[in-house]
Design a protein that fits this description.
The protein has one domain: Class I glutamine amidotransferase (GATase) domain (Rossmann fold), CATH 3.40.50.880. Helix content is 24%, strand content 19%. It contains three helices and seven strands.
């Protein structure tokens, strides 16, 4: 015998997972931690999704832990390496001084980063912020220069 129940037919105490109507996205004001994500042109969508989905799932299964803001250099939508355009929340220059900033790039991140952009990264590091790189931004020589000029310890991991 096969029994199919709608989600609202299941008693809350019997359902071991969060309900689908629980809010998976939080604002920075609601979350304990906010991650600013700077998307460079032709960034890897796979890298972005692999970074954000665990945070979203942690919010559903845990408490109000994580929020994120997507940023581009000018605050306009940006195109990933697969051709899909993504809307962003803000531009890079408005990132808070003490931000946790992850840079997500693709094949030639050094071609898309100017001296003015480096200044934003140095400002964040000088105020105790956190900088990280995902995708190729963690491996190109410019990332090592960003970290070393910001006097921050370097750590790289690959999967």
């Amino acid at each position: 015998m096969l029994i199919i129940l709608a989600m609202n037919d299941v008693v809350d105490t019997l359902w071991p997972y969060p309900r689908p109507d629980s809010p998976p996205l939080l604002t920075p004001e609601q979350a304990q931690h906010t991650l600013d994500v700077w998307l460079l042109p032709n960034f890897s969508m796979l890298t972005l999704f692999c970074m954000l989905e665990p945070l979203r799932v942690a919010n559903r299964f845990g408490s109000d832990l994580f929020a994120w803001r997507l940023r581009s250099l000018d605050g306009k939508g940006i195109v990933a390496s697969n051709g899909v355009s993504i809307e962003v929340n803000a531009d890079l220059s408005g990132v808070p001084d003490d931000a946790s900033l992850m840079v997500v790039s693709s094949y030639q991140p050094e071609a898309d980063v100017s001296a003015q952009d480096h200044a934003v990264l140095r400002r964040i590091a000088a105020h105790g912020g956190w900088l990280g790189g995902a995708g190729n931004s963690a491996f190109h020589p410019g990332a090592r220069r960003w970290i070393s000029t910001c006097a921050m310890p370097a750590c790289r991991a690959a999967w």
